[in-house]
C-alpha cells in the first residue's frame, strides 16, 4: 500500500485501459469527479500516438434529474475491456461502497483510491486521501500541481462538486484553497450563477412534498440541541420522489437556532435504516458515524443500521450527547461591534 501522487500520474500515463468508478447512490461530487477525471486524462495523457480506453462505472438504480445533468451524454457501465490496466475509485471511502464494481476494482493490475473522506479505509494499492472540500477539489489541485490543461467543462464539474458537497459553502472542509479555486473560475468567466441555480434553486414539487413529510416528523432532544427526522420508502414513493430527493433534507435541521446535530433516518424496504448526520460549529459527527458502523466528515456523515428504530436511537443518542457535552452552550459574541457608532451618536446629542 502506497500514498504517492507521483505513482498515480505514472500509472495513468502508462495505462492503456482505465476503469473509473464512484460509490453507490452517487451524489454530485462523486459523478462530477468521475467525469472530470476522465476529461483530464483525455486532455492531458492521450494523443494520436497514445490512446486510452477509459470507462466509467457506477452502481446506481437511478440518478436524479439534477445530478443526471452531470453525466448527460456520458457512457456508463459499459465494459470495453476484459482486463483493465488501472482502476481508479473517486469519492469512495470503502471498497464495499463501490457495490457490484468492487470486484472489478480489485481485479486490475493497479488501482488508485482518490478521496476526501476523513474516514477513508485506504483500500487500494495507492491511496490519495486529501483534506479538501470535495473530491472534485482534490482533482483540481492535482491538475494544478502537474500543470495540466484544465478545460472550462472540467471547471464546471469541479465547481459542481465543491458547492454541492459543502451545501453551497456552508459546511465541511472549506479552506483558503477552496476560495482560491472559485476565484480562478470567476476569473475564467465560468457560469457559476447558472450552476448555483441548477443545484440549489431547481427542486421538484416531489422534493418539496418529501421535505414536508420529514418536517412533520421533526422532534427535538438533548435540550433541543438534537433535531431528529424520519422518512420511509413509502413516503418517497407516495411523494413520487427519488432517493436523491432526500439529499439535503437533513440540513434543514441544522438551520434551526440552537440545534447542533441534525439526524435523518430513512427506513428501507428491508426495514433497515439509512441515517444521515449533520452538525455545525465545533460539534463533529464523523466519529459518531464510525461508532455506528459508518463514516464521513466532521460535519457530514452517515451510517446504515440493521434493526429497530428505537434500538438505533438508544445507541445513537448517547453518542450524540457525549459529543455535545464537549461543546457546552455559551453565549455567542456579537457579530458586529457598533460601539463607535453609538459613541458618535451620543456626541451628536
Notes on the structure:
This protein is α/β, with parallel strands linked by helices and 349 residues long. It contains 14 helices and 11 strands. It has helices spanning 5-14, 28-45, 65-68, 102-107, 135-145, 152-165, 176-187, 192-200, 205-216, 233-238, 251-254, 286-291, 309-325, 339-348, and strands spanning 17-22, 53-57, 86-90, 110-115, 126-129, 219-221, 226-232, 261-267, 273-279, 295-296, 300-305. Helix 2 (28-45) links the parallel strand 1 and strand 2 (53-57). Helix 2 (28-45) packs antiparallel against helix 6 and helix 6 packs across helix 8 (192-200). The longest helix is centred in the first third of the chain and has 18 residues, at 28-45.
Can you tag this structure with a few keywords?
inorganic pyrophosphatase (n-terminal core); alpha/beta; six-stranded mixed beta sheet; single chain; 349 residues; 14 helices; Diaminopimelate Epimerase, Chain A, domain 1; five-stranded parallel beta sheet
How is the secondary structure organized here?
Blueprint: H1 5-14, E1 17-22, H2 28-45, E2 53-57, H3 65-68, E3 86-90, H4 102-107, E4 110-115, E5 126-129, H5 135-145, H6 152-165, H7 176-187, H8 192-200, H9 205-216, E6 219-221, E7 226-232, H10 233-238, H11 251-254, E8 261-267, E9 273-279, H12 286-291, E10 295-296, E11 300-305, H13 309-325, H14 339-348
Parallel strand pairs: 1-2, 1-3, 3-4, 4-5, 7-8
Antiparallel strand pairs: 6-7, 8-9, 9-11, 10-11
